[in-house]
Amino acid sequence: MLQDMKKKFINDVDPDSNSLSVIDGQGVTLKEIGEKINTGSLFVKKRLVVIENIFKNKKTKIFSELVDYLKKFSAGEDNIIIFIDEEASGKNKVLKVDAKKLFTFLNKQKYVQEFPLLSNIQLLSFIKKELSSYQKEMGASAAASLINLANGDLWIIASELKKLAFYSSAKIITEADVKELCVGAVNEDIFALTDALSAKNRTLALRLLEEQYAAGLSDEYLIAMLIRQFKILLQIRTGLDNNLSQPEMTSQLKLHPYVIKKGLFQAKNFTTENLKNYLNQLIRLDFSNKNGLSQIKTELILLISTL
Fold first, then answer.
1. How far from 50 is each of 15, 90, 137, 297, CA to CA, in Å?
2. What angle separates helix 246-253 from helix 257-267, to the nearest 10 degrees?
3. Using an 8 Å Cβ cutoff, are 192 and 159 in contact?
């Protein structure tokens, strides 16, 4: 849904994405938020500011500051501010006083929606419904393998189902199809690519990127996987900066232990600022690509060449 809102904003309001900002709330200050809200294109009145995971911010004064700021702030027709948190609804009962005040304030706003993680049964139902639109079916074991490989990520599951539906000429997609084509192998390739980026090995990174395209991955899929991976690395890097252990990260980030283990090795080779820079560049590329303004492969090659 968030991607749809961003896309609509770009298509209807701001084709150049100059008035769209995505803020990592884990370390942001009120000053930085205010600058993003009050800075935009001269040619576009409206601004869209997305603030992610504000409740993971360790600077507790940000919560009371935001409540006061937002109470005085009139969004009107010119600004759209979206707060998105991976676990906010379930965390309300354990939030500290100031954070709970912000949560309560946001929860009373007109447009609030919860997107709980789907259970395996719900994911199986989603897979069945999604495949029916392609006149395809999938057995329980194949669906379970896909859910496991995608770590329950609904966007990845939907993308993989589309790929599987067009790949297989048979009506029923098998577990062998899933294991051959799906995200598990791709994740390893993405790990290898981010390994090369963290080591600043331009030659290897460029070769791995070329291999991704040779394997038939689309611009959209590749950029989405890179964005996802750098978001994970930023979360892990933040965990390292806060002296969290591997088990604590696994619990708090709700990621598979294998993903945490691989990510720890890579995150140690990045600074927080490095990761934010890469992530912001990838997000801008994604926005531009959706609006037909960029050649993703060329831009990725240029990005890697600046290592």
1. 17, 21, 37, 26
2. 120
3. no
Sign of the alpha-carbon torsion through 124, 126, 129, 132: negative
- As a whole number of angstroms, the distance between CA 179 and CA 176 comes to 5
CB half-sphere exposure, 183, CA atoms < 13 A: 27
- Please report which confidence band the pLDDT of residue 185 belongs to, taking 50, 70 and 90 as the band edges: very low
Specify the pairing of strand 20-24 against strand 47-52.
Answer: parallel
Q: What is the dihedral of CA 229, 232, 233, 234, to 10 degrees?
A: 120
Domains of the chain by residue range: 2-107, 120-181, 184-305
Q: By three-state DSSP, how is residue 21 classified?
A: strand
Tokens of 296: 């993703």
- Report, in this order, helix, strand and coil percent for the chain, each rounded to 5: 65, 5, 30
Reported pTM: 0.45
Summarised one tens digit per residue, pLDDT across range 204-247 is 888 888 877 776 667 777 787 788 888 888 999 999 999 988 88
* Mean pLDDT confidence for 299-307: 81
pLDDT per position as a tens digit, 45-86? 677 888 888 888 888 889 999 998 888 765 455 678 888 886
What pLDDT sits at residue 137?
Answer: 93
| Radius of gyration (C-alpha) of the chain in whole angstroms | 20
CATH number of 120-181: 1.10.8.60
> Does 1.20.272.10 match the CATH number of domain 184-305?
yes
8-25: burial string, b at 16+ Cβ within 10 Å, e else: ebbeebbeebebbbbbbb
CATH number for the segment(s) 2-107 = 3.40.50.300
**Average of pLDDT values for 3-26?**
72
